[in-house]
Amino acid sequence: MPTAIAKVGKAAKLSPDAKRKAWVARSLILPALIFGIVLTQIPFLTTIGYSLFTWNLMYPDDIHFAGIDNFVNVFTMGELVPSIIATVLITTSAVVLSLLLGLFFAILLDRKFFGQGIARTLMITPFLVMPAAASLIWKYSMFDTNIGILNWLNSVFGLPVISWSTDLPLLTVIIVLTWQYTPFMMLILLAGLQSQSREVLEAASVDGSGIFRTFQWITLPHLRQYIEIATLLGTIMLLQVFDPIAIMTKGTGDTKTLAYLLYERAFIGLDVGEAAAYGVVTVILTMITATIALRTVFKVFMAGGAR
Amino acid sequence: MRKIRKSLASLFTWVLVLAFFFPVLWMFINSFKTEQLASTIPPSFIFEPTLKEFGIAMDRGMADYLVHSLVASVSSTLLVLLLAFPAAYALSIRPIKNVQDALAFFISTRFMPAAASILPLYMIFKTLGVLDNVGALSLVYAAMNLPIAVWMMRSFLSEVPVELVEASQIDGANLRVEMSRVVLPIVMPGIAAVALICFIFSWNEYFLANLLTSFDAGTTPPFLGSFVDGRGLFLGSLSAAATIAALPVIIAGWLAQKQLVRGLAMGAIK
To answer: Mean pLDDT over all residues of chain A?
Structure first.
């Protein structure tokens, strides 16, 4: 890819034909760029503007410039830090757990066995189920104290009844997210396992390398790139997660993530200015995470996606 | 001995897979029960199935929400394809000067939380009178899916043999012919994958739909979110509604597993 860019770069200075070609290429990408800028970048700049105003929808006649007042509120009201902790805790636990479970299932499903295709099809289903539906089904048919399957299993095995929703809200959110994202991780890792060279694996087994040694020294290094992609994409999606929190816990019990906090300030508290300030802080925090992650993504994607 | 160990391993795998799939199966089973039966412990697995709860879910106006979901998902997906195909073209087959910058821009908009832009969008839509409008929701969904679509599409396009494109150029094909007659047919499976992913993300989206729509354009996820109203037993009808809502994407995903894998990895995995 760098050579292609260099070619275009050099040619653009040379001939009018190349200039015309460069113009054609630019005109192809322009609609998408403009669309993206109008619907994401301009609103973001407007959010920064909103964050500098005192503006509550309850008092539409009293909108005035507030300077950094909203940010002072955000940092002193004591909701920001717990919310960052909740976001990090939920994202990290769900990513790590679904990655480990995903790897486990990928290894199981990589072997030939009866009904392999059907098993794989069933395994990917949780990722396809509408998150709102998944959250509701888990809340009312799995976690429910009286009619939930989990407590019924507990009673069958003589274990004490657990009130999941009231005592362990954070865990219920993490469980549902892990359940939904395990298939996603599994699919990527399974693709990684299946792209291993059979000859190398056979050579290893002929050389008398045991299953675990082969896994540690051959499979795991080979999977590294796939694990990186899975982690990165999982993190991007899970950082913004909203559905199970809005549906299952409504932010109670240490589950008030940044996305939910902003929603609450804006659409329940109707405080546009302060919600915008939360939005700006969220973006800054995400950008810090993303800059670190973007370096990885470019290394990974450029290596995998170049001609 | 080896054979026994192998079949034990298969059995073990199947038990775990079924346990993992169980919540979906349970939703499906419960949707065919009466309210009373769905809320009975110990749970019953063998019973006389009824479609009654599906009827109750539909009676609550679910059809309208399904139609809104369908319109928003299909139209946003079409719009994304129209924007992303040429854009990806300019990032692979006829590269612009700053390919890396453009790609970084697209992926950074995906990193940016919806929180960053939702307030102004809400205000603008309100001012323009398009709050609770399916068209406006489709535009937002298109913006949401555009980055992934561009990335995926670029990876599919960069697999088109250079010789083929060059040959068509030598034959005097203009850009439109080159794009539509030469390249498009080759990357059709890729485009199907992109379309599927965009459809899934739009169909399942809850946050934006919840804020930007209510009655006239409300989609299925917020409908489900407000389904439980605290009156009496509801697990049967809730399971029926959730089954109807989840089924289109489940079936689409089952049918297109291969494309799904590539698509989900944004084309990074072949």
So the answer is: 86
pTM: 0.90
φ/ψ region of B33 (left if φ > 0, alpha if ψ in -120 to 50, else beta) reads beta
Cβ atoms within 10 Å of A127's Cβ, excluding its own? 25
Q: CB contact, 8 Å: A85 with chain B?
A: no
Query: Residue A255 contacts by C-beta under 8 Å, 6 or more apart in sequence?
Result: A86, A90, A169, A170, A173, A245, A249
Q: Tell me the C-alpha distance between A126 and B218, whole Å.
A: 24
Q: Which residues of B touch A122 (CB under 8 A)?
A: 17-18, 20-21
Instruction: Name the band, by pLDDT with cuts 50, 70 and 90, for residue A83.
Output: very high
Name which of B240, A230, A253 is nearest A244 in CA terms.
A253
Q: Which of residues 205-244 of A touch B (CB under 8 A)?
A: 226, 229-230, 233, 236, 239-240, 242-243
- Give the distance from CA B192 to its chain's centroid: 12
Put simply, whether A18 touches B (Cβ < 8 Å) is no
pLDDT digits (tens, 9 = 90+) for B249-264: 999 999 888 778 777 7
Q: If phi over 0 gives left and psi between -120 and 50 gives alpha, with beta otherwise, what is residue A282?
A: alpha
Interface of B with A in 69-98 (CB under 8 A): 83-84, 86-87, 89-92, 94-98
Amino acid present at A164: W
Task: Say yes or no for a CB contact (<8 Å) between A8 and B95.
Answer: yes
Q: Facing residues of A56 across strands?
A: A271
Q: What is the pLDDT of residues A23-67, one digit of tens each?
A: 888 899 999 999 999 998 899 999 999 999 998 888 888 888 988
Q: Convert the pLDDT of each residue in A219-264 to its tens digit.
A: 888 888 888 888 888 888 898 889 999 999 999 989 999 989 988 8
**Phi and psi at residue A64, in whole multiples of 5°?**
-145, 160
Of A31, A275, A290, nearest to B86 by CB-CB distance is: A31
Whether residue A299 is predicted with pLDDT greater than 80 in this model: the reply is no
Quick: pLDDT tens for A174-206: 999 999 999 999 999 998 898 888 788 888 888
Reference B63, options B202, B245, B233; nearest CA is B245
* C-beta of residue B71 within 8 angstroms of C-beta of residue B133: no
Res. A4 pLDDT band, cuts 50 70 90:
very low
Which chain A residues contact residue B224 at CB under 8 A?
A: 130, 132-133, 136
Residues A251, A123 contacting (CB under 8 angstroms): no
For B197-228, give one letter per residue: b (16+ CB within 10 A) or e. bbbbbbbbbbbbbbbbbeeebbbbbbbbbebe
* Three-state SS sequence of B201-254: HHHHCCHHHHHHCCCCCCCHHHHHHCCCCCCCCCHHHHHHHHHHHHHHHHHHHH
Q: Is B44's Cβ below 8 Å from some Cβ in A?
A: no
What are the residue ranges in chain B where pLDDT is below 50?
A: none
Smallest Cα distance from B216 to chain A, Å: 19
